[in-house]
Amino acid sequence: MLSSVVIPVINIDGVDNILLEVRGNKLKHQPGEISFPGGKMEAHERPIDTAVREFCEELMCGEDSIDIISRLNQYIAPNKGIIYTFLGRVKDIDLGISNDEVERLLPVPISFFKTEQPTVIMNKVSFEPADDFPFEEMRIPKDYFDFKVDNEVIFYKYENEIIWGITAYIIRDFVSKINL
């Protein structure tokens, strides 16, 4: 699956913020979690088109509310496929929006992410081969996959909110590359 998100930067009272969303509680996937505006690419779309379309749909605004500044990195998210990211400067927008997809908006000062290190948890992930895995045919022992690998999960605590997973990874990567 291919998706695109915008890292939307908005200036509030002279302070640059990353504008995140608290996802609607009735959504099927990841209700109540914090994420960037974005979503699945349609077959006919370019990544930038998806990013802008999803931003406008979720934040209930027109395309004139966001200026895309740059395409950033691509990420591979567990069970989500490839995610394209774009940096955007938000212009005139209603910060009080709420709809089925977005419970509310959450502006977080970029300076918070520059000064606060995320909490890092190392999970162990194991591989469990299928019952019909052809060990004998492949000439490998049945304990070949008896190992665990580290899987880093990071999260930021901002006020009473938890920003974690791919959203936190993208933020950490983004703020490590900017000078403010």
What does this structure look like?
With 180 residues, this protein is α+β, with helices and mostly antiparallel strands. The protein has a domain at 2-110: Nucleoside Triphosphate Pyrophosphohydrolase, CATH 3.90.79.10. Helices cover 19% and strands 43% of the residues. Strands 1, 2, 3, 4, 5, 6 and 7 form a seven-stranded mixed β-sheet that branches. A three-stranded antiparallel β-sheet has the order 8-9-10.
Structural Rg: 19 Å
Shape by Cα distribution = globular
Helix content: 10-25%
State the CATH topology of the domain at 2-110: Nucleoside Triphosphate Pyrophosphohydrolase
* CATH class identity of the domain at 2-110: Alpha Beta
Extract low-pLDDT stretches.
none
Kindly report the name of the CATH homologous superfamily of the domain at 2-110: Nucleoside Triphosphate Pyrophosphohydrolase
Mean pLDDT: 89
H-E order? EEEEHEEEHEHEEH
Tell how many strands the DSSP assignment holds: 10
Summarize the biggest pleated sheet.
Answer: 7 strands, mixed
What is the second-level CATH architecture of the domain at 2-110? Alpha-Beta Complex
Work out the strand percent. Answer: 35-45%
Helix/strand structural class:
alpha+beta
Number of helices: 4
Q: In angstroms, what separates the terminal alpha carbons?
A: 34 Å
GO molecular function: coenzyme A diphosphatase activity; metal ion binding
Protein name: CoA pyrophosphatase
Domain Nudix hydrolase: 1-137
Keywords: Hydrolase, Magnesium, Manganese, Metal-binding
